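Ticket #268: bound-state structure for flavin-adenine dinucleotide.
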Amino acid sequence: MADTLSLARPAPPSNLFAANVLGVTHYTDTLFAFTCTRPASLRFRSGEFVMIGLMNGDKPLLRAYSIASPAWDEALTFYSIKAPNGPLTSRLQHIQPGEEILVGRKPTGTLVLDALSPGRRLWLISSGTGIAPFVSLIRDPETYERYDQVILTHTCRSDPELEFGREAVAAALSDPLVGDSARAKLQHVTTLTRAPHAIAGRITDLIAGSALFFKLGIPDPDPAHDRIMICGSVPMLSDMKAIALARGFEEGSNHQPGGFVIERAFAS
Ligand SMILES: Cc1cc2nc3c(=O)[nH]c(=O)nc-3n(C[C@H](O)[C@H](O)[C@H](O)COP(=O)(O)OP(=O)(O)OC[C@H]3O[C@@H](n4cnc5c(N)ncnc54)[C@H](O)[C@@H]3O)c2cc1C
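RESOLUTION: The complex was predicted; output attached.
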């Protein structure tokens, strides 16, 4: 009995769930993803973020993370940076299957379908780990029920940084639940800023000058029926927000659905 007690993990703080890590994939020196069990009472909407972390002594060390799996999934997926000397990720990057992570009880966020007014074409514009919430949304059947066309753009510096997104799109295309819809409606567009690529450059430049739309053979976004979600660095968000406002889009929120919504992929 004494042995059982000494091996038992301490209960997490009351505002947190404990989840068990199921698998970890390292993509580059600076990027990895992991899945963990989903606490039975955790509810969230596809596209939301939640606080996750590890115990640090007797206190939790928590950071905001987009949930990169859809609301219906039995497991949770997170896609993570390995920030140099980052308090959380310098430890989190070494996490192994069977170990425990902490998950907040209150997912939230604006990159949700309900924050956009009805439209026909959905643009999901991401850079770096900002693709994570959209990986959730492209596996949610409601995304395809609401839109005729879904265009996911992902901008990174080099090709290996695109791999998580490529795998996620392949998973959506072969998913028994959304595969038919994704094959008919989902388009994945990648751009690189520091290596040769079919489409090269910052997404903000490609959109501001309409080169992206010309390249894709799609008309420039129209506030009447296009809807836009944006997730990236603070400068990327402010540039994209200015572009969206200049094109006549109104920012939406959970309380007031609109033409576009934004969320930081990380704090500066
Ligand atoms: C709403 C929201 C959602 C987020 N979702 C994710 C997510 O899905 N995946 C993820 O990896 N991070 C995400 N973050 C960032 C995350 O909260 C942490 O900052 C990150 O995990 C690093 O934690 P840290 O303690 O190691 O270092 P921190 O002290 O938090 O950061 C150290 C440095 O790394 C930079 N940095 C932090 N995160 C990133 C990133 N993702 N990409 C590039 N540079 C970064 C910071 O600007 C800072 O200069 C999100 C942040 C917010 C606000």
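RESOLUTION NOTES: Residues 2-104 form a domain with the Elongation Factor Tu (Ef-tu); domain 3 fold (CATH 2.40.30.10).
TICKET STATUS: resolved
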